[in-house]
Amino acid sequence: MKVISIANFKGGVGKTTTAINLAAGLKKKGKKVLLVDVDPQSNLTQSLGITEDIKDSVYTVLRKEAFGEQTKITDVLMTASDLDLIPSSLDLAGAELELASVYGREQILSQLIKPLKGYDFIFIDCPPSMSMLTINALVSSDYVMIPLQAEFLPLKGLRSFLKHFELVKKLNKRIELLGFVLTKYDKRKKMNRQIKSELEEEFSEDLIFKTYIRSNISLANAQEKGMDIYSYDKNANGAKDYNDLTKEFLSKF
To answer: Domain of 85: which CATH number?
Structure first.
């Protein structure tokens, strides 16, 4: 079982889109996958069609674990759009303050994930900041995967994230950087090509996924409908790109 955090300081770079469609692509190839939403904005949860307020979410089990109550992360497991999901809720926004004084607060999610069995991959969708929730996700993970829009500000956010990531590695020595995925990419745009070139100059080629995700309105439409891209339109460019990314992702293991 491999646990992968999908993270970046910049919002809107395709973290949630990548989490959903990579998980769906892996499931199509016979892999058992779990999605965990630790973002208080609940974008992953909502993008899988869960639009009503949820009584029991990842917040429920985090809080119980933190304060010594008996709990299991599977207590809040649900299936959404045919994918296994640990959902988020707006209550999670208060977790930072509630967990601030808890001993070992960086390890809470890790303790919940450790007993899980039967999954090939677990993807954790993180908030766009180095919050206590993101730290919990990274401490729980074997790898971090970073979606990146090929523009100036997302690249700046990436560099900032990597500085903080070095500090997190002191808490979790096993975590590795799996790589960067360029999203919303249009090779006709000069800036997109320029940022891709800068990324290739700054980092080793094995850290940059060769598959990039093209700009494709079908990806946004699929999330609006609470579906993965394959269920929404298997012939869309987004489906082709995420299918290629799934193959490349598996080749790394």
So the answer is: 3.40.50.300
